Amino acid sequence: MFALPKEREKCEVRDHCHRARSEGVDVKARRKLIIASVLCLVFMIAEIVGGVLSNSLAIATDAAHLLTDFASFMISLFAIWIAGRPSTQRMSFGWYRAEVIGAMASVFMIWVITGILVWLAIGRLISGDYEVDAKIMLITSGLAILVNVIMGVQLQHGHSHGLGGGHGHSHGSSKSNKRGKKHKKATAHVNASSTPCAASPTKRIEGGVAFEPEDAELPAAGLPSFSYQNAKLVDPGLDLEIAAVLAETAPGSHHHGGQVGREAVNMNVRAALIHVIGDVIQSVGVFVAAGVIFFWPEYAIVDPICTFVFSIIVLFTTFTIMKDALLVLMEGTPNYMHYAEVLQIFQRIEGVERVHNLRIWALSINKVALSAHLAIGANANAKQILDAATSAVHLRYNFFETTIQIEDYTAEMENCVQCSVPEK
pTM for this one? Predict the structure, then answer.
């Protein structure tokens, strides 16, 4: 059985297809967006006033950008709320992709407003109207930098950083070996910082493989790599082939697991953060332009020029979030999941003749589903193979949902186009 150190609750094994769901509204993401929305609205009004008083198109650009941010924050808050709704018979997968749609709407909005501002800057260049109040422009842009930094800090605070961020070491513990004489199942010791289990007070584990308490820990990011010995310590009845696969898929007993089991940032918070980064860049540009105009009034043309330059920068800052959103909508395999490795795990199970229709796709940016067909030999035990496949894949990856179909192997599968492994 498994539990975290210093905890004595009974750990219940889960043999079926999904892990504990994190239903409900993402409270942390909602709180971040509400704070950012209030700051954005207050200073947007201040920038509109400053832009009118200074006659600066660059300040107006920044104010319009804040208006876009505020609207996108509202879209994101709605998306977070609707994503927390339970699934229905019509929406059987739930509403998780609402946050992706909200993020895309936010990005599209900033592209539209950026195009409008570029058009206004072109009109100012043609007319030659560059008269601005540099002093008001300086004060307003300086305050804009401060407010955007505050918004960025509160949005950034508390989430995992990037794709990396954690690694674990697996060791066959001598203490575990000694305890094996006393208990039917011994301990696998993982040298990594621990995180709490998802469910309480009863701990559930997917895959049908259980751990003893006291010595076992969950890594902070990713899953531990399992040596051959540790895989057998986890469950003495674990198939030899599975134990070998677990060792092979994590060479050197050293696994940098930040990409595999990372806690992804809520996509709408990430989109909001990218908006704010664009605002900071633009506000710095406006501040520099205001300084140039203040000391050298004859160079007032930098006001519309700044609009061009920083509009391009803002567009580029949105490409990454749009790329990730499109990957989810196209049901692609996330970068931190390894298709070939999952395929190898299934192929090495004794009795499995062929693996086909292996599908790994993202329900949302941090919820990944898997389905596969395992074609087995005539004398193979379907129940044992299903248990082994479920255990092996969940030991290596933290899939949100899995569906594994067992079927009889036929020679026709070798020449079937639909049963072939897809290209990279």
Answer: 0.60
